[in-house]
């Protein structure tokens, strides 16, 4: 055993949602743990990864501000509230966002301390491997090395750039730059109509930006249920969000004042878009460059993901990888579940992660959320199913608060009545989907959910009514 380095049972590289949760669970199980992460803000360690620093948390903070702004601007009068023309102080809004981020960073640091986890603020990479375990370099102001028998890789992902179009985070933006603008852009172009593009577009649209979205796919959110996609497209276009599908980006040029985007539309016509700011949101790629994978022979696939089995084991003994580094959806909660499961396995316990039950949420207005199978997937598989759908227009709580767009759609097995998928577009979809996740986890039937007494008036009644509708027994529609 080496005497010149500190030795741990587990070293976790990365303190995003997957990494910090894995570290905490491993420590709870009695293992000595070191977590390494290089995020810094204003000279201070900022654990939490992309999610906390430039993703989930800041985007939800800005979405909340945008929703409140729109509520005051467009809806206050309906409630008999007279308000002069509202204005947005972008600097103050960003300060609020940054405060929330810092609170989350500090909360993670507190949890490390509480669980007696050694935290090193630097970049971790493989140095060597031998019978004692893995030697890890920590590139920090005070460069150090640590060693562990087990290593969990949780370095996450980074935005995918277009070829020869680097992010400058001033005029050509990734999610990071788009969540830190100093003023509302007059025009905002977005390449990519995925989750990030829609959420960020929604934020700046509410503040008055003219937003146009270009998407290569032939339709919106092709991975979601088609009926939800159709409804979302209709609502977003009504809100003034301009979207074009089936486009091919030909050339992007920044002249110092505006960005031009030359593209070919779905009919083969050559087009050009001029915008003040351009967000490129075409997906993310695993961040493995800093790990020095070749040093120890860590195997990556042709797309750069770390190859793992169904339990997140890599090709190396006692090396695990989770979250955005591996197959499956790039979602914070998926990474958390994998992190906990890997910690359990290292401690000798059995653990399971059901990727097919991982929910997805888009925090636009209205919100979109789903879990389980889509109708198209069931058709393709040749599985017989039943459909129950209930509109929020028929929900008392939705009418009371003026949020009646959308519906809850439930899919159940035609013979057994087992719930196979739930798809929601409407108010509080991101909260309601939790009930659907529980239903799928316990193998509930539509009848099971229809027999639950929900509070009245509440949005959750829409889920019950959709369950009733599966068997053509809806009460309020």
Automatic annotation (TrEMBL):
Annotated Gene Ontology cellular components are: cytoplasm
The biological processes this protein is annotated with in GO are: 2-oxoglutarate metabolic process
Which Pfam families has this protein been placed in?
Pyr_redox_2, Pyr_redox_dim
Q: Which cofactor does it need?
A: FAD
Q: Which UniProt keywords apply?
A: Cytoplasm, FAD, Flavoprotein, NAD, Nucleotide-binding, Oxidoreductase, Redox-active center
Reactions that this protein is recorded to catalyse: N(6)-[(R)-dihydrolipoyl]-L-lysyl-[protein] + NAD(+) = N(6)-[(R)-lipoyl]-L-lysyl-[protein] + NADH + H(+)
Where is the Pyridine nucleotide-disulphide oxidoreductase dimerisation domain positioned along the sequence?
A: 358-467
Name the principal localization, coarsely classed: cytoplasm
Q: Which cysteines are joined by disulfide bonds?
A: 51-56
Its subcellular locations are:
Cytoplasm
Q: Which SUPFAM superfamilies does its entry note? A: FAD/NAD(P)-binding domain, FAD/NAD-linked reductases, dimerisation (C-terminal) domain
Q: Where does NAD(+) bind?
A: 192-199, 215, 283
Query: Active-site positions, per UniProt?
Result: 456
From which domain of life does this come?
Answer: Bacteria
According to the record, cofactor stoichiometry and binding are noted as:
Binds 1 FAD per subunit.
The protein's matches in InterPro entries, at most eight in alphabetical order, are given as: Class-I_Pyr_Nuc-Dis_Oxidored, FAD/NAD-bd_sf, FAD/NAD-binding_dom, FAD/NAD-linked_Rdtase_dimer_sf, Lipoamide_DH, Pyr_nuc-diS_OxRdtase, Pyr_nucl-diS_OxRdtase_dimer
Q: Where is the FAD/NAD(P)-binding domain?
A: 8-339
Q: Which NCBIfam families match?
A: lipoamide_DH (TIGR01350)
Further remark, if any? The active site is a redox-active disulfide bond.
User: What protein family does this chain belong to?
Assistant: Belongs to the class-I pyridine nucleotide-disulfide oxidoreductase family.
According to UniProt, the name of this protein is: Dihydrolipoyl dehydrogenase
